[in-house]
From TrEMBL:
Pathway(s) of this molecule: Pyrimidine metabolism; UMP biosynthesis via salvage pathway; UMP from uracil: step 1/1
Family listed: Belongs to the UPRTase family.
One GO biological process term: UMP salvage
Enzyme class: transferase
GO CC annotations, alphabetized: cytoplasm
Recorded name of the encoding gene: upp
Protein name: Uracil phosphoribosyltransferase
Binding site for 5-phospho-alpha-D-ribose 1-diphosphate: 79, 104, 131-139, 200
Pfam families membership: UPRTase
Function statement: Catalyzes the conversion of uracil and 5-phospho-alpha-D-ribose 1-diphosphate (PRPP) to UMP and diphosphate.
Requisite cofactors: Mg(2+)
Source organism: Roseibacillus persicicus
Reactions this protein catalyses: UMP + diphosphate = 5-phospho-alpha-D-ribose 1-diphosphate + uracil
Record comment: activity regulation: Allosterically activated by GTP.
Length: 209
């Protein structure tokens, strides 16, 4: 069974309150999501491999560590995934970035793929897949199915909020993929929205409500 890590941090809690607030306007939502991602990134990137080498300081040479080649890779589940990937790129500008376009059909709640562009040598990279909302789990499971087809082995998933239903579905479909999230919410409503949640993440980032 894959691990579920709820990233428990006072600043994450504080920023999540702003993100959940229906009165938060989208420019603030975008900025605070980015700041929250910097904090979530600290735990989510803890497993990354580094390679040993040397660096010349102004005083002497020392053994030092750097990200490997090829570098890790961030994958955004469009469109809301970009809200997390923007912040992840801030802390790891060396990362390659891929995009998977998935939209959830509002009637069936099943994801439909409309775009896929992934970095070269993805099978050799450590991959962080990002989507702010793990609701039924359908979009994340479909994204991981696609990444597995492309040979990705080393993979973790980051969300901002998760529903218990989505965690269970993801753990059962992909038991080897560690899950990181900013909070585990109560349940889904009849339309597949996370309760208490924050609404539609894509709409709140891009002001399309
Ligand atoms: O776990 P699930 O039940 O699959 O739901 C979660 C998905 O729904 C949202 O995307 P949406 O389909 O609204 O697309 P968007 O990012 O373009 O707004 C969200 O960003 C996830 O991708
Ligand atoms: O609560 C939810 C569920 C799916 N997608 C969202 O953006 N929000
Ligand atoms: Mg989506």
């Amino acid at each position: 069974m894959s691990t579920l890590t709820v990233i428990d941090h006072p600043l994450v809690k504080h920023k999540l309150t702003i993100l959940r607030d229906v009165a938060t306007p989208f420019p603030t939502f975008r900025r605070v999501l980015r700041e929250t991602t910097w904090l979530l990134a600290y735990e989510t990137t803890r497993h990354l491999r580094v390679e040993s080498g040397t660096v010349e300081t102004p005083l002497e040479e020392m053994t030092a560590h750097s990200l490997p080649n090829p570098a890790p890779c961030l994958i955004s589940i469009l469109r809301a995934g970009n809200g997390l990937v923007d912040g992840l790129m801030d802390v790891m500008p060396e990362a390659a970035v891929g995009h998977l376009g998935l939209v959830r059909n509002p009637k069936t709640l099943l994801p439909e793929e409309y775009y896929c562009k992934l970095p070269s040598e993805i099978e050799k990279r450590q991959v962080i897949l990002a989507d702010p909302m793990l609701a039924t789990g359908g979009s994340t499971i479909a994204a991981i199915d696609r990444l597995r087809e492309k040979g990705v082995r080393n993979l973790v998933f980051l969300s901002l909020l998760a529903a218990p239903e989505g965690v269970e579905a993801l753990q059962s479909a992909h038991p080897d993929v560690p899950i990181f999230t900013g909070a585990l919410d109560r349940e889904l409503n009849e339309k597949g929205y996370i309760l208490p949640g924050l609404g539609d993440a894509g709409d709140r980032i891009y002001g399309t409500e």
